[in-house]
Every structure is written in structure tokens, then in C-alpha cells.
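The step that takes the researchers longest sounds almost clerical: writing a folded protein down as plain text. The outcome of that step, for a single protein, is printed below.
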Amino acid sequence: MIDSGSDPQSPATESGHGAEWSEQRLISIKADIQRWSTELGFQQIGVADIELGDHEKHLHAWLARGFHGEMNYMERHGTRRSRPAELVPGTVRVIAARMNYLNDEARRPQDLLNETGKGLISRYALGRDYHKVMRRRLQKLADRIGEAVGPFGYRVFVDSAPVLEKALAAKAGLGWIGKHSNLLRRDAGSWFFLGEIFTDLPLPVDRPVDDHCGRCTRCLDDCPTGAIVAPYQVDARRCISYLTIELRGSIPEDLRAPMGNRIFGCDDCQMVCPWNRFAQHSEEDDFRPRPGLDAGELIELFGWSEEEFLRRTEGSAIRRTGHVGWLRNIAVALGNAPHDDAVISALRRRKDHPSEIVREHVNWALKRQREATRNP
């Protein structure tokens, strides 16, 4: 039995079909799904089988090297992450979908890197939380399928359960996994979200596409902290996205300076990827940047109280870092900024913050500012 959605309170549904499906009927259903997905705002869908043996080996090797850092959930679920039918019994296919998120109203992240007084937030987090947007659309897609075929087994996922989403998307023909570990398409780059519907409908599968990274190593060469330790190998413990979002404790001192003004996530490997010349902008209103988040002044962002942080990030992926993590990240960015009396004043106002984590990073930032005074 497969439940109808990732929400544990969703009612369970069970397929009333099975071996009765004809090949022609399944081809027709898949064509309908592709049409409905476009109407719902997805740029592409594909269908994968559930054999992920090679990806499972890669995952286990990655975990064995400790590259997941404190993300213990990556190993907590055992083989359920790489074996969809163990995670959701009855699954025989996965419908993978992608949706563009890069908005043309947002500043170019490569331009913001040079504006050291501003905070750089990963472009995916500027608008509404993509989990909510994608899950709602995928649920609508599942509803349409149910209206056409009757009760069927399914469950919707959007980065919310132990799912190898990039591996499944690659198997479904949505792109290939690049050397930076993101999914890439020749005609769309990598600025898109992924989501899945696990289902017991035996739909025709799509063919994977070839890897087109070639000899390019731009993502490895330009990673600020050297997190891409080899092609297709990312040590999350060095990744700025991990450091600013997943890590709850202190950011290692040797990685703070390379963070620059990146305060939530990092887009550098995507910025330098040649295939992103072909990236397409999103037309989704939900992904438009919220006021104050795109190119916000570091000092102003650092001054947000917890109440203001929660209010301004309501319905946003930025909530994940929490107020303490927010202040920690911005303290590092202020420490990396050129010497400025206003920066020093802002940092001093947080010197006695209740959180030891915040105090530690504020003191580090003040030390950096003092060193900048001595070495202009």
C-alpha cells in the first residue's frame, strides 16, 4: 500500500489496477501526465524504474568517508534511501519533475560577491519555500492522474524524506549528475528544483541522458572552500551550503574567510558552470525575491530580532537555519567585510548575545576587523 502524499496524516490509497494495464494504455496515461505537468508549471517530467544499485554504492562510499558531516539522517534510514520499494512498499516507478526557480528580478549572485556590505543568499531561497510550492503542484498532478485512472498507489516527495532525488531524476532522463553533484541539462543548466511521485503504476520509463561535463573542472576550481574534492565527490563538511544551513555548531575557523558575504547557501558551482548559459528564468510568482532578502545590507540583517527574523522568513526556506544560525552566518560575513566603524558597532551590540555560538563568531569577526585596521 502507498499513501497519497508525504504528509503522514494523508489518507492511504491502494491501486485497484495492476497487470490489467495494456502497453498502449500506459503510453497514453504517460502522455497525459506530461501534458498535465506542463499545465501545472513544471518544465519537465520523466519516469524512472527503481533500480539504483550504482547510486547506492556511491552513497555508501560517500557516507563511509564521513562527507555527510552532522547530517546523520543521510545514514539513518539504511537502504530505504536507495531502494524506493523499501521506503514506500508497492512502488514500481518514480515520476520525477523539475521546476525552474531562477527569477529575473533577483540580482546576479556573481555581482553581489563584490558588494561586501550586502548579504548573499542562495537564489533558491529568495522566495517562497520550494517544498510547499512543489509539493502542492505534485499533489495536484497526482489528483489528476487519479481522476483519469481511478484509485492508484502513490506518495509525493519534495526533499522531505530519504529519497535519492538526483539519482532518480537522472534515471528519468531529466539530466545528468554533474561533477559538482547537481543535476544538469544542456538546455536548462541547473537552476531548478526536483520533486517525485512514487507510484505503483507501471508506466513506461525514460532513458537517461549522457554526461556532458567533459574535461571541464570549473566547479572544482572555483569552489570557495574546496568542498568538491574530486569530480562527483562533495565533502559537505567544507560546503558553504552545509556550513550555513545544516551545521548547528561553530563554523571551522579556516573556512570562515572563504565564505565571504555568503550568509545562506552558496551558488558558486552553478554560477561558473558553462551549461547555465542556457538556464531559463522562472515565471512563478512564488519564486520572486522577497523584499530585503535579495542584496540586503548585512548590518540591517544582523539587527533583526528573533521575532523579526521569524516574521520576515515566514514560509521561507531560510527559517531552517534559525535565528542563532542567521546571526552566526552574518557575523562571519561582517568579519570578512572591509574595516568599518559601523560594522564594529553592529558587532559589539551582539557581544553579549545569550547564544555562545553567536558570541564566538562575533568575537572572531571583531578580531578580523581589528586586523583589517592594522593591515589596511
Summary: DSSP finds 16 helices and 13 strands in the chain.
